[in-house]
Amino acid sequence: MRAPRSLLPLEPDVRARLDGTPLVVMLDVDGTLAPIVARPEEAAVPAATRRSVAVLATRPATHVALVSGRAAGDARRMVAVSNVWVVGNHGAEVVSPTGEESVDPLVAPHEAAVAQARATLGRLLAPVAGVLVEDKRWTLSVHYREVDPQVVPLVQVSVQRVAQELGLRVHEGKMVYEVRAPVRVDKGSAVLALAQRLGGLREGAALLFVGDDRTDEDAFRVLRHRAAHALTVRVAEGAPTDTVAEFTVRDPAAVRELLDVLAHAERAHA
Rounded to the nearest 5 degrees, what angle is found at the Cα of 5, between the Cα atoms of 12 and 13? Predict the structure, then answer.
């Protein structure tokens, strides 16, 4: 797989791929719309970015979806824009623009196990300075960005052990361990299903997914395999070698620039 090329400025061939109908735009939140911060509760999407998302969501023949590891309600609160779809908990839940909620039937049976993991890890990790155990109901995040690096291996061992005892799986993200149900539900399965639902897989459609984390690689991978017309974009400085995304942009400010272009573009096929 070649290293991704810079998406901006948009080349004519890329503009043509974004000119389809419908246009389905799927966006991660933390690290993509919002700059990464030490504590997840302090993250914020800049007002200018929210405006760009809001304008794009009102365009004809355009669908916007937030695809986040956060709980869907939390992602929606952060972006605070109407008329968007929200995929939360790494694909475990989906909320429509009208507020209709659904939970993946493969994930729902593991709710009690995730709750037990939260209680157990909350107790075990309480003495560890800087650790944050985030309860998202369908999944659990253990953040260690502010933990002493020498202590992180002990945190990892605790998370792995508790998850294994409860029949759950651990996935790694940016300075976070994600505890999830032991099923094949992730951002990849979720974006593929939603893209199909919204018409983004049809001939003549345009499809864009932007993300910044390891968990977004599931979406990059499945879209590149199942939707050759899709644009997959990794938010990262330089030319990252650890991604299967086709393109890259440098930071959330560049994502806003891309959204501005899409929000105000004259689309031939809209």
Answer: 15
| pTM listed for this prediction | 0.92
Q: Domain coordinates of the chain in residue numbers?
A: 5-105+185-264, 108-180
Q: Give the burial string for 219-257 (b: 16+ CB within 10 Å, else e).
A: bbbbbbeebebbbbbbbbeeeeeebbbbbbbebbebbbb
Write out pLDDT tens, residues 47-65. Answer: 999 999 999 999 999 999 9
Residues labelled as active-site residues = 28
Protein fold of 108-180? Alpha-Beta Plaits (3.30.70)
Q: In the chain, what percentage of residues exceed pLDDT 70? A: 98
* Distance in angstroms (rounded) separating the CA atoms of residues 53 and 84: 9
Give residue 172's identity as a one-letter amino acid code: E
Rounded to an integer, the average pLDDT of 199-205 is 96
The single-letter DSSP state of residue 19 is S
Instruction: Tell me which residue of 56, 108, 4, 109 sits closest to 259, measured CA to CA.
Output: 56
Burial class (CB in 10 A: 0-12, 13-18, 19+), 154: middle
Q: How do 23-27 and 206-211 pair as beta strands?
A: parallel
Question: What CATH fold (topology level) applies to the domain 5-105+185-264?
Answer: Rossmann fold (3.40.50)
Please, what's the largest Cα pairwise distance for the chain? 59
